[in-house]
Amino acid sequence: MIRTPLRPLARILRARERGEDPNEIEAENRARRHAEIQLRARQRADTRLMIMAAAFIIAFGTVGMRMGALASADPQEPRVQASGARILSQRADIVDRQGRVLATNLTTHSLYAQPPLMVDPERAADELVRVFPELDHERLTRDFTGSRKFVWIRKVMSPEQMQAVHDIGEPGLLFGPREMRLYPNGRVASHILGGAGFGAEGVSSAEVVGIAGVEKAFDAWLRDPSNNGAPLQLSLDLTVQRAMEEVLGSGMRVMRAKGATGVLLDVDTGEIIAMASLPDFDPNNRPSPLVEGDPSDSPLFNRAVQGLYELGSTFKIFPVAQALDLKLVNENTMVSTRTPMKIGKYFIRDYHNYGAALSVTDVIVKSSNVGTVHIAQMLGPERQQDFLRKLGFFEATPIEMVEAPTGKPLVPSRWPAVTAATVSFGHGLAASPLHLAAGYATIANGGHQVRPTLVHRRDRGNGPRVLSESAADTSLSLLRQVVVRGTAKQAEVPGYSIAGKTGTADKPRPGGGYYSNKVISTFASVFPSDAPRYALIVSLDEPTASVGGGESRVAGLTTVPIAAELVRRVAPLLGLAPDTASEVPSVGRRPEGALLVAAN
Amino acid sequence: MRTLMTLAAVLVVMGLAFWAYRENYRTQAVLSHMESVQRETAGLRERLGTLNAEWAYLNRPERLSQLANRHFEQLQLLPVTPGQLLRQDQIAYPMPRAVMEAGTDPFASTLPRPPGFPPLKPRPAPETAP
Hints:
Structural class of chain A: alpha+beta
Largest sheet of chain B: none
Structural class of chain B: mainly alpha
Helix content of chain A: 25-40%
Number of helices of chain B: 5
Number of domains of chain A: 2
Radius of gyration of chain B: 36 Å
Oligomer: heterodimer
Mean pLDDT of chain B: 79
CATH class of the largest domain in chain A: Alpha Beta
Largest sheet of chain A: 5 strands, mixed
Low-confidence stretches of chain B: none
Shape of chain B: elongated
Strand content of chain B: under 5%
CATH architecture of the largest domain in chain A: 3-Layer(aba) Sandwich
Strand content of chain A: 15-25%
Number of strands of chain A: 20
CATH superfamily of the largest domain in chain A: DD-peptidase/beta-lactamase superfamily
Number of helices of chain A: 17
Shape of chain A: flat
Mean pLDDT of chain A: 86
């Protein structure tokens, strides 16, 4: 490019001749050159901006077009994907601690009708009633011949029924696929599993939702596809659970009881190995709740978790353990057992007169109310409440069932001296058998708090210590004495040493006061007593044992033999080796449904 | 030279077009095959779930105990009792060879075959030491 010189000689000379300042020429030229440079720079910047704008328009235009295309296109299943990915619309299975199925899914079909498509509505109604006798013929005919466009007929049905409906040959009868929850073991663990039903329903699918128990408590988890189909593993053992239900069932019949409860708990982890409540139900066909009367009479009622009972003398070990822990007594300290004992205007009595005094061991072994009250008085109400609170008797159990919060113990709001006295021997405070199991597990595991759980391997570590190891050991030896020479002699099982405490509590009348001939009899135990691993609670509602022509309701004769039979059945299943070499028993035919009470 | 280049380029384009055509159809064939495999997998999974459910139903404790009672004559099954758990030193191990060679099979008499079971196969003769 040709640059114009700043001082062109010709103009300078001419200017000099005229006497003008040649510097003005230079300034003028310099200004012109600057203007040109500015103009060029602006043009280049303009071009760059245009290019940038074009690039952005193309880029965003592409994105926008793609979005528009995606939004307007019909949705399509991704065809290219890893074949390992599974369609996870299914609800996850529930299995026991050994992986045996407790709840699973089954694909069946639902049946619906579209009356406008029907050829012969009246014949269809006739034939349908023949296949499903429970249907109302009149109503079906009315629905089919009326103005309805859509009628649900069955939510689920068996393949045979489906074939029968196919055979009707009516084009207006249509099937929709249905996923159904199946509990293959029937009544086993029914209260724990709860049940499932249909939530939102469509023609091509329906949502399976938990109604009660674990199914409801873990509903979100079971339906979460991100678990990749992993089953929910419960701490239950199917075989042990079934054995418990069988033994409790026959025990309930023999003792003519209204209901029975059993809880078997691992004392270290708090895992529930088996938990039964009779009468039970079939979760595949869950009965509807009672609309009137006492809800606890319904088979849906879970006595082990929801049932709040005054658990009687089984409570006595708690004040004694606490007094041992605080070193207020030792097992040989003599305690006054002079009966009746007067507190305010109330009298506390023992069933028998045990004389002036008993050692702490004998207070437990002979189950003296008065002796226990004296020990509780040494503690004082604050410390007594504090200890029971630490054992979990003031709160609902943290078990993973939707019914758990309803099992919040009935704790007296005020704690006068007479309440402190009655609570010490298990009256005036109503808790569930599961609470009691957790309390006994604390004594059995060396004094750590236990939080019962239904989930296998939910490792939460040891709970905080609430009782010293030596106090727990001594309490355990007291409980062992109860079986060796006390009220629970029938709990001696060859091969296994059981430690436990009986409790027989009068049932409260709905209107106040207590029944004289209705009791809750409970046996709370731990085994094996030298190195406890399991806590077992067995409780019978209104049992009566026939003893020598008469009747007896005490736990030692009603609940204890059942608990002993349970240990005999369940301990080998748990893999506990007997500690003595006993002879292999002879094999004899088992009477159908009868209680097996082996001679000791 | 230029004609040759043009001809070569045309040939390359035709080749590529043919290759792309074939790849396109092969891809579609593989995709539809994969779909059918996936459908089959889903069907088999569903069937597996049904079979698992059936297996669990057939193995429910109630049915097993009924079967054990019905076939008691043959099976003699009873609930496990504490007496059936033994320590290791209480288990009879196979006899030393000398006893076997004496001609008495220690297990032959102790365990009678339940009725309905096939008789025991004869044991191979013990090896004779050279």
